[in-house]
């Protein structure tokens, strides 16, 4: 025997399981209480005639079905729909009906793809490494980005790193020479020109080297002023 179909005051209809007969359930649409009648005493839906003259209401769009409008009657639960509404939802609107469209499964959250997928090829040694790796575990080559790199990109990266390392050495040398008083006028010009010209490179080298560069400029300037002061006094 087919399980009974009950209607809610909100207009929703649903087929209920056999164990719910004679009990109360909650409407899945409006959460109202619905008393499920016993099929033995209820009038079978299959025997109820569908009369368009009563201007039935489409349960999908919640509007009256006018005489002459294209309709679709569910063969399982006898629920009447607008034909367009039936096609739009892909089946019957009665909850639990066999002709009701299957609920769409929630799409799993997509894992953000990295630049080269799950693995990537090291442009230096050719070994496969993790896509998010910024250093090859085989050849220990470090990358400045997880984005795809070619051999030419790796060469440019190596050139930038070599320039940064060279700037570190130059700044250390300038800093040491700036503490030699007799070289102050010369070191003032050299240190000031170098720091101003290579500000971006020094910034990549780190704040320590930027500070060392400006300290060298300051020391050379102070020593130059002291030398000029003593020369004026001696003259």
Automatic annotation (TrEMBL):
Family annotation (InterPro entries): RING_finger_1_prok
Record keywords: Membrane, Transmembrane, Transmembrane helix
Transmembrane domains' residue ranges: 170-196, 208-233
UniProt keyword Transmembrane present: yes
One Pfam family cited in the UniProt record for this chain: Prok-RING_1
Protein name: Uncharacterized protein
Source organism: Aeoliella straminimaris
């Amino acid at each position: 025997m087919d399980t009974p179909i009950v209607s809610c005051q909100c207009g929703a209809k649903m087929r209920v399981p056999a164990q719910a007969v004679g009990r109360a359930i909650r409407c899945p649409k409006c959460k109202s209480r619905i008393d499920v009648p016993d099929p033995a005493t209820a009038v079978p839906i299959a025997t109820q005639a569908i009369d368009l003259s009563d201007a039935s209401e489409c349960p999908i769009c919640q509007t009256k079905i006018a005489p002459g409008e294209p309709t679709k009657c569910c063969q399982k639960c006898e629920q009447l729909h607008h034909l367009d509404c039936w096609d739009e939802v892909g089946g019957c609107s009665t909850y639990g009906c066999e002709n009701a469209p299957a609920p769409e499964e929630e799409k799993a959250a997509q894992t953000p793809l990295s630049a080269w997928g799950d693995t990537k090829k090291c442009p230096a040694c050719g070994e496969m490494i993790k896509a998010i790796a910024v250093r090859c575990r085989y050849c220990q080559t470090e990358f400045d980005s997880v984005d795809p790199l070619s051999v030419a990109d790796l060469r440019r990266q190596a050139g930038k790193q070599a320039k940064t390392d060279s700037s570190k050495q130059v700044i250390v040398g300038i800093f040491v020479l700036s503490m030699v008083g007799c070289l102050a006028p010369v070191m003032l010009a050299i240190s000031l020109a170098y720091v101003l010209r290579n500000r971006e490179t020094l910034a990549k080298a780190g704040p320590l080297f930027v500070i060392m560069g400006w300290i060298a400029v300051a020391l050379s300037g102070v020593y130059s002023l002291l030398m000029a002061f003593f020369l004026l006094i001696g003259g």
